[in-house]
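Predict the 3D structure for this chain.
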Amino acid sequence: MPLVMIGVLFFTFGYITWTNGTLIPFLKIACELETDTQAFLVTSAFYMSYFFLSIPSSFILSKVGFKNGMVIGLIIVALGSLIFIPAANSRTFSLFLTGLFVQGAGLSLLQTAVNPYVSILGPIESAAKRISIMGVANKFAGILAPIILGAVVLKGIGDLEGKLKTAQGDEKEILLNDLAQRINTPYIALAIFLILVAVLFWFSKLPEVKEEGEDNKESKTQKDSVFAFPNLILGVFAIIFYVGAEVIAGDGIGQYGKNIGISLDEAKNFTAYTLGAMLVGYFVGIIAIPKYIKQENALKYSAILGLIFTIAAIFTSGYTSVYCIALMGLSNALMWPSIFPLAIKGLGKFTKIGSALLIMGIGPGGGIIPLAYAEMGGEVNPQRGFWIMAICYIFILYFAISGHKKKSW
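Done. Predicted structure below.
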């Protein structure tokens, strides 16, 4: 039952996270943004909140526990969703970014709670399997997110773009205002759903679990600082590069399709392709880990696969390159489930703060690396930006082979 309830949470923030792929082209049109780099501030605002709020989240969890922390996180995400209403009414891009930042703040608290919770709810050796099960819920929601939100806010977007090219003055303002208003209904519904889930968790009997040695003044390793664990610090960088690769492949694929001449009516659903490939990867993890393959080996093979698909995306074109990007979802699927338990293994009393540092990695991963991709590629040379992903996968490969084994500096 605890895993089922946590699965509901993973579904919830999976849906929220993967609406960004739809919001990027939507806000570029509705707020009349000039460049892809501006549009990718959507991911920056959303993910950088993790960087600033993960450490405070760990202290909140230490005070209130996992369950209450999850309730607080859900309420914060609901408040962020409601900020979209005044943002849409005024078509103010900075207000949209504020709503995304607040959503990310709530998800930061949720992520800091649920990932170590799932990892230590059973044997650490099978943590990747449990996180993979959660990933199925997360990515299934991710498949639905662009389809549902895209059907509402990007319906008939091709025709609308044609009208906007010739519209002037008040006519153009009316068209843009009508477009922006489409966001209200789905985000009001989302806020209501989040509050209902928060109430469900408040009245639940979710058990409080603790890592071995978490409450002891001395850990078995006799280390007195969280920074004395190389596997954790290198794991933080692995998370940064993984999240960057995941966001580019998931949130960036729709804008990439548009940049290479594919109609946004079709490209708006490309995120679902990437998430579908990730879903396949999670099922592989559920079946294979740890019975047939260790989680560190799953990470190694995933990084190699990611490099192959990246090179293929760079040197192919059209729909072939789109499919290669989508297949990166397959290579990305087992990275988070493998990196997280390898990074927190042996932390003992430092588990919560270690988890917070890993969640912090989501910030620069989702907030800076996609901007570098957009700046390097963008509309001018869309494929050139994928060299950024090659760097990401190379570091993850290093962590999988030897980085996670380091016990001292």
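The domain at 2-405 is CATH 1.20.1250.20 (Growth Hormone; Chain: A;).
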